[in-house]
Specification:
This protein is mainly alpha-helical. Helices cover about 65% and strands about 0% of the residues. The protein contains 19 helices and two strands. It has a two-stranded antiparallel sheet. The chain starts with 15 loop residues before the first helix and ends in a 16-residue tail after the last helix. The C terminus is likely disordered.
């Protein structure tokens, strides 16, 4: 893509055809994560098939609205970066716990999310004031943690998906490898547009070959209705109670910490500085989007980390591409049949694309950490070492934290949250509140 002179790539509006193709690429990548959360929750709460489809459509619609709010924004809402917003997996256990409480159900979930979203919106300025505690040594750790945390998801897809009786079958791995090779070929021999659409091309090739060999399941596409209309209060009027609200608000506070790190890290990746005011605007948008989602039986919304890898891999940083994807999500919400086509993409094809995208995110984090000064500031090495060692525990040895109190699980289950908290605290203790330290320290090897 050619850069428009005088316009930052984040603000660049591309020609319609390539912008639409790139938006569809983001849609294909984020669709699986968007459908998984409402599907899990609907099953846990005993929804009928019709109500499950309605919940998924409501989630898509709210995801589209949240993405438009975050990318385009208005007044003091929206960080205005290429960020796709979606339902966070960190919400699942809390929502199921609330929804299965006697006399609470989905209406209590909606009420808790509405109140939580309003309160997050109100405290957003406080989050903005914390911007100065996220220097490059911190954001580099966070980006690395994002990539490493996502890779197990890609490996699970490549093996055939969670719960697959034939997990790891050679045919599944061959499809994942085919997608990876196709992405590499697009990047090596394709023109600018083909390189930008390498992930979509790899997914298409992998999906077609997988379906030809009988790996695809087209049943959901045949059974999905043609039209459905998400509407406010479809599952009844929201109810409000202290315990459901307190439960969901704690989860949303943890997500706010994660979002702060994501906004600043993504800003670094697309080479646009994120100011304290923009951090507050992004958190404010998350809160408003979550409150609106509660009206439609949606859930708390934060950035889709999967799409970060696509921004890096495609090289297209335009927030308008992601905004168009959000608009398409709103439209897809009304046409479940179209969404079912995306759902029919076999898991191994997604796995090949995921390995490429999430690996790129981890590599971008390592690249950021390579620019940190370790020679004149020996503390930075300690910060990086201890942060990554702690952040990888939920991935490499998740059972280590199982005996800790239940309230801590919402923090300790996420590598990104652990990376945020540990790196910020260590940097504050070792380098002080001014960032990475203005005074020189002896090199580590001389310590």
């Amino acid at each position: 893509m050619t850069k428009t002179k005088g316009i930052h790539p984040v603000d660049e509006i591309l020609p319609l055809r390539p912008m639409l193709a790139l938006a569809l690429q983001h849609l294909a990548v984020s669709y699986v994560g968007s459908v998984a959360v409402p599907l899990i929750i609907a099953n846990a709460l005993g929804f009928s098939q019709h109500d499950t489809i309605l919940l998924i459509s409501a989630t898509f619609f709210c995801s589209g609205v949240a993405t438009l709010l975050q990318t385009i924004g208005f007044w003091r809402f929206g960080v205005r970066l290429p960020i796709m917003n979606g339902v966070a997996f960190s919400s699942v256990s809390a929502i199921i716990a609330i929804g299965t409480m006697p006399g609470v159900g989905i209406s209590g979930v909606c009420g808790a999310v509405i109140l939580g979203g309003i309160l997050i919106t109100l405290i957003a300025p406080l989050a903005g004031r914390l911007r100065r505690f996220f220097p490059p040594v911190v954001t580099g750790c966070i980006v690395t943690a994002i990539g490493v945390q996502l890779l197990p998801v890609a490996y699970q897809w490549a093996g055939g998906g969670h719960g697959n009786a034939n997990f790891g079958k050679p045919g599944y791995l061959a499809i994942a490898l085919l997608v990876l090779v196709t992405i590499l070929l697009f990047n090596r021999y394709g023109g600018p547009l083909m390189r930008n659409l390498a992930v979509l091309g790899g997914l298409t090739v992998g999906a077609l070959v997988a379906v030809l060999f009988g790996m695809g399941d087209l049943t959901p596409m045949r059974e999905a209705p043609w039209l459905i209309a998400p509407a406010p209060f479809e599952f009844g009027m929201p109810t409000f109670a202290i315990l459901p609200f307190a439960t969901i608000f704690i989860v949303m506070l943890v997500q706010t910490v994660e979002s702060m790190g994501l906004f600043i890290s993504i800003g670094d990746l697309v080479e646009r500085e994120v100011t304290p005011g923009q951090v507050a605007d992004g958190i404010r948008a998350n809160g408003l989007a979550s409150a609106v989602a509660g009206v439609f039986a949606g859930f708390p919304f934060i950035a889709h980390m999967e799409n970060v890898g696509l921004v890096i891999l495609s090289g297209v940083r335009s927030r308008w591409v992601v905004a168009l994807c959000g608009l398409i999500f709103c439209v897809v919400a009304f046409f479940p049949k179209f969404g079912a086509i995306l759902a029919a993409v076999p898991a191994p094809a997604l796995g090949g694309a995921g390995i490429a995208m999430f690996g790129i995110v981890a590599a971008a984090g390592i690249q950021s950490l390579a620019k940190v000064d370790y020679t004149n500031n020996r503390y930075n090495m300690l910060i990086v070492a201890l942060t990554l060692a702690m952040a990888f525990i939920p991935i490499l040895q998740p059972s280590l934290f199982e005996q800790l109190p239940g309230w801590s699980q919402s923090v300790l289950h996420s590598s990104v949250v652990v990376a945020c908290v540990v790196s910020v605290v260590l940097n504050l203790l070792l380098n002080g509140a001014d960032g990475e330290g203005d005074h020189a320290h002896a090199p580590l090897q001389q310590a």
